[in-house]
Write a structure and sequence with these properties.
Blueprint: E1 4-11, E2 17-25, E3 31-32, H1 37-40, H2 50-59, E4 68-70, E5 75-78, E6 81-84, E7 93-95, H3 96-101, H4 105-116, H5 120-129, E8 147-148, H6 160-165, E9 170-171, H7 174-185, E10 190-191, E11 198-201, E12 204-208, E13 213-215, H8 221-236, E14 251-258, E15 267-268, E16 271-272, E17 274-282, E18 289-296, H9 305-308, H10 310-322
Helix pairs in contact: 2-4, 2-8
């Protein structure tokens, strides 16, 4: 019963988009490929953006993964706003690693307020350094530019720092989020996603298009290895452990974002709508493909990223893995 969904599958090293699909539900409940949400729908990504916050914290030397944070009973009051964790009783005292594995909003916000309050520009500058504020510049029209505001901007407030760190008050398209995660999979090198290999006229190649580097290194090697370990932990023991398989390793991050309804905030007529997502790469120890799944306004009772978007990711990754001969030993002729 979702309003729409999109999936993108990309080759890690080259940035080649191997598959892209979009489905929109019309008033009669019929789904069709009516709009390219992958590049044309900019929205608050929610928890998939927390990985960017983790990179900033590690790069600035503010945290170690084993540091303990008291997330209490899963509620944090910031001015007139209460941040909550999806786990109703809260997680209590947990490590920084666990904060990101279980996706604790309270834990991430506490870390950001502790280390970046008064130094908000340092956080945003790091996001900009990772090119998260720049459009990709795809070969086809329709890409919406990211929106990551800067301290002092018109809509910046005391809530902006903690909210941005958990994926609110920022806007990115699914492809822009995937490009960031693809860089994590690609040893820190961010490559431009592309749809065109060559222009051919009557069998003659007129122009070829190779891999284009957007950012040679989004962070240091030590930070990268820690972040990759955390993203593997999300699937092994965290919010996406339902995707874990012993055949190959998946790394990634779940996202469950409330959808803003304009001036009425996140609720309209007492109803809250959600956007479920999962973004990651596989095989985690030698990444070949990255993939993002976004499902908008799934049914009322089931909306978490791990149960809505996660299984779609797993079905795709299973199929790609099973049909790629490179991951299987060759069978010698039996005499």
């Amino acid at each position: 019963g979702a309003g729409w969904g999109t999936v993108i599958l990309m080759e890690v090293k080259t940035g080649e988009i191997k598959a892209i699909a979009n489905l929109k539900r019309d008033e009669d409940g019929v789904y069709s490929e009516a709009y390219n949400y992958a590049i044309g729908e900019s929205a608050e990504p929610g928890s998939t953006f927390k990985t960017a916050a983790l990179i900033c914290l590690l790069e600035d030397g503010y945290v170690n993964l084993e540091d303990i944070v008291n997330t209490g009973k899963g509620k944090l009051q910031i001015y007139n706003h209460t941040l909550t964790d999806s786990h109703e009783e809260g997680y209590g005292k947990i490590s920084v690693r666990q904060i990101f594995e279980v996706s604790s909003n309270v834990g991430v916000a506490k870390l950001m307020l502790q280390h970046y309050r008064g130094k908000e520009k340092d956080f945003i500058d790091r996001l900009y350094k990772m090119k998260l504020n720049q459009p990709i510049g795809l070969e086809i029209d329709g890409e919406v530019a990211p929106n990551i505001k800067y301290p002092g901007d018109k809509y910046w407030s005391g809530l902006s720092l903690p909210q941005m760190s958990i994926g609110y008050e920022v806007k990115l398209t699914p492809l822009q989020i995937l490009t960031f995660y693809n860089a994590i999979a690609n040893d820190g090198t961010m490559v431009k996603p592309h749809l065109i290999k060559a222009l051919v006229n009557h069998g003659e190649t007129i122009q070829t298009f190779g891999t284009e580097v957007i950012c040679s290194s989004i962070c240091s090697g030590s930070t990268l290895s820690k972040v990759r370990g955390v993203l593997e932990g999300v699937v092994r023991v965290g919010t996406a452990k339902n995707l874990s398989t012993n055949r190959y390793k998946i790394a990634g991050k779940t996202g469950t974002a409330q959808i803003a309804k304009g001036k009425s905030g996140y609720k309209k007529g007492g109803q809250t709508s959600y956007r479920a997502s999962f973004v990651g790469y596989f095989p985690a120890d030698d990444p070949k493909y990255s993939c993002i799944v976004v499902v908008n306004s799934p049914s009322k009772s089931v909306y978490y990223g791990n149960v809505v978007a996660g299984p779609i990711f797993k079905e795709i990754s299973d199929k790609v893995f099973a049909t790629s001969s490179e991951w299987f030993p060759s069978v010698k002729d039996v005499e």
